[in-house]
Every structure is written in structure tokens, then in C-alpha cells.
Amino acid sequence: MFVVLLGPPGAGKGTQAQRIAAASGLLHVSTGDMFRENVKNQTGLGRLAAEYMDRGELVPDEVTIKMLLERIGRPDAAEGAMFDGFPRNVVQAVALDEALATRGARIDKALLISVADEELIARLGGRWICRSCGRLYHERNDPPKRPGVCDACGGELYQRDDDRPDVVRTRLEKQKPPAGLIEHYRNAGVLREIDGQRSLDEVTSALLEALQ
Ligand code: AP5
After folding, report:
1. How far is Cα 164 from Cα 177, in angstroms, rounded to an integer?
2. How far apart, in whole angstroms, are the C-alpha atoms of residue 130 and residue 98?
3. Strand order in the sheet with 109-114
4. Using CA atoms in the order 135, 141, 145, 149, what is the torsion angle rounded to 10 degrees?
5. Average pLDDT in the 106-126 region?
6. Which end of the chain is more exposed for a tag (fewer CB within 10 A), N or C?
């Protein structure tokens, strides 16, 4: 099964993708995580991506699509994957459709997580991430047992550079799923809208139900 998770920055795509991957075994593919890994390793791709990420803007399509297609060409993505943060626009969606079509596959579900702007700002401002395993936390909504320490692996927690208020403002202006992208999946008959403004467990249940 191939699934896309759509939603504005901070909607809970990453958190829910981690939970769904754990519950279903579906491979979690996050373009944001792939870019951050490249930034951390100071690769050429990382240096290029950082210029855009630091400003809260999307990395150019040709770069992002090339990276994503390389990722889904690996054996562990042969049977399915859940895309978190990809596609962001119709150009990316068509590139993904075409790549899947060459192997007789398609996007089976597109799950759109909706959350109001003021809640998104609060979520991004309070987000903490484990440097070792990537587990996501929120200082109020989903705090670790010990501040600054990951419950899962004991790793150090950090806050993303692009969660600064000025960058968050740009991300919310420029990175909400555009109407054309939502239409793309509605027309394909695979779109499901999920109210993301509920507890973490309630959103997980709604997503798992939509995947049945
Ligand atoms: P990316 O990492 O994909 O960032 P994003 O789309 O802005 O999404 P976030 O990761 O910020 O939020 P999320 O929806 O995953 O929320 P989360 O689960 O963390 O991309 C980063 C950058 O990379 C982009 O800006 C762009 O430059 C580049 N990029 C990536 N993909 C690209 C592409 N395809 N094309 C071009 N450029 C691309 O949750 C947020 C917080 O809320 C957490 O603290 C969590 O604990 C909390 N929370 C979650 N759900 C709930 C809930 N139900 N109740 C209470 N708290 C909750």
C-alpha cells in the first residue's frame, strides 16, 4: 500500500507516521527527515536544502523529486510506503504517480490532517525531537518523562532551527497543501480528511481506520 500524509507544518504528520509505521509495519518516508540527515552530514544536497529550509521555503522540485525517487527505488519500498511531507504540490504528485505506475502501483490513500493555525503555532513552538532516534515530543502535549531526554532511547532532545517564530510564519504562509494538490487526490478518489485537532491517540485511531 502506498499512502501520502498531507497537512500543514505541525499538523502531526511525522508523529502520526511514526505511530502508524509502528502499528502497521508500513515504511515511513519523510523528505524533511532526509533533508535534515543531509544537512547534519554536510553533504552537497544538505547545503543546498539548508538554504531553503532556513528560510521556511520549499526545496526546489527537481532536487526533491530526484531524492524521493531514489529512495523509493530501494528494495525496502517495493511493497509500499507512507510518504510524510511529500508531495507538496501537483508537480511532485504527478512525478510520484508516474514512478509508481511504472511498477504497476498507485497511491491508495491520501490522508489530509487539518489543524487550525493558532494550534499549529503552539505545536511547532513546543516541539522537541530526539537527536538519536527521531522520536517526536511536545513540551505540553506529549512531554518526555525527563526534560531533554528521550523516553525511547535516552538520546538528547533538540528543537529544530526552522521552528523559530519568524520561520514558522513563512512556513505557514507558503507550505500549506495547495488546493490543486488536494483536488489531485480528491479526483483520484483516494482523499480522506482527518480532524487533527484531537488527542494524539484519537488522530492515530482515525488514520488507522481510514487505512483499513
Ligand atoms: P518537514 O520536516 O516535512 O516539515 P513540515 O511539513 O513543516 O512538517 P513538520 O515536520 O514541521 O510537522 P508535522 O506535521 O510532521 O508535525 P509533527 O508530527 O512534528 O519539512 C521541513 C523542510 O524540508 C520544509 O520546510 C522544506 O524546506 C523541506 N521539504 C520537506 N519536504 C519537501 C518537499 N516535498 N518539497 C520541498 N521541500 C521539502 O507535530 C508537531 C508537534 O505537535 C510535535 O511536538 C507533536 O508532539 C505535537 N502534536 C502532534 N499531534 C498532536 C496532537 N494531536 N495533539 C497535540 N500535540 C500534537
Report:
1. 21
2. 35
3. 28-30, 81-84, 2-6, 109-114, 191-195
4. 40
5. 96
6. C
**23-44 average pLDDT score:** 96
Q: Helix or strand or coil: residue 109?
A: strand
For the annotated catalytic residues, the residue numbers are 13, 88, 127, 160, 171
Amino acid 166: pLDDT: 92
Per-residue burial over 175-186, b if 16 or more Cβ lie within 10 Å, else e, is ebbeeebbebbe
pLDDT at 160: 93
- Region 193-202: mean pLDDT is 97
* CATH architecture of residue range(s) 2-116+175-211: 3-Layer(aba) Sandwich (3.40)
Q: Where are the domains of the chain?
A: 2-116+175-211
- Ligand 1 shell residues, CB under 6 Å: 7, 9-15, 31-32, 35, 52-53, 56-59, 64, 85-86, 88, 92, 123, 126-127, 136-138, 141-142, 162, 171, 175, 196, 199-200, 203
Taking a C-beta distance cutoff of 8 angstroms, is the pair 73, 102 a contact?
no
Alpha-carbon distance of 156 to 103, in angstroms, equals: 40
Residue 1: band (very low, low, confident or very high) from pLDDT cuts 50, 70, 90: very high
